[in-house]
Amino acid sequence: MCLAHNQSSDTAATASNLGRMPENLETRFALSAIPPHLRDGATVLLLDPAKGYTVGRKGTNGTSCLVIRSDWRFPRRPFRNDIYWAVGFDAEGAKTLMQIYLATAELRARGMDSKRVHREVTKKFGSAAYANPTRAGIAYMIAPIMRGVDDKNVPEPKTMNMPHYMIYAPGVSNADIGGKPLSLYPFMLSMSPGRDDFIIMLVGATEKAGILTEFKGLLTDLSAYRNYLCTNARTRVELPTKTGTQGL
To answer: Considering the entire predicted model, what is its pTM?
Structure first.
């Protein structure tokens, strides 16, 4: 059920009014991104909008989870306060790809706008600071809900119940794997071609239904926290726009 509330912050915003999530809710949301067998041993990173990410819980299995609030990919779009997507990186991704999101949060906290942040992080891609993955790996995004921008030409973010897996595949295209975009078959998402290329695999209908049931309480609490994190008939079938999956 979606709960109505008055949230003056439920709009596009600058870095100065990025809200901090309640710690327990942020932790639960972050951990929902990964499979059950990884949750007890995972590191959880929590966002302090004034500083960046800090370790809320130190894990033991190499997996790191966090809720992304700032996306480095869109330099022509101002940062917003209504972006929420949970992701869990394996050990390789935590050392490499995750570092871009940590840096983005820190630079935003310092007052940099999206254009400058994009410039600062992308110019260091492949350097020691922001190394490329050295092997195949996976980023888990099987949380029950996400809200993000998927296309520089679409004005508003989308809220979606779209649990999925992201397999690191730098330099790989849909032609290479026979990908079928926006389907239950694997397809490519290229966020930074040659570096942040992922094979996307949506979970099946039965697994998705199970995830939504497992996290019914979390979905209720997220909806109460922000009305745009509400699950409804539209969000259950929503998918990214085709142009949002670059390189299709």
So the answer is: 0.90
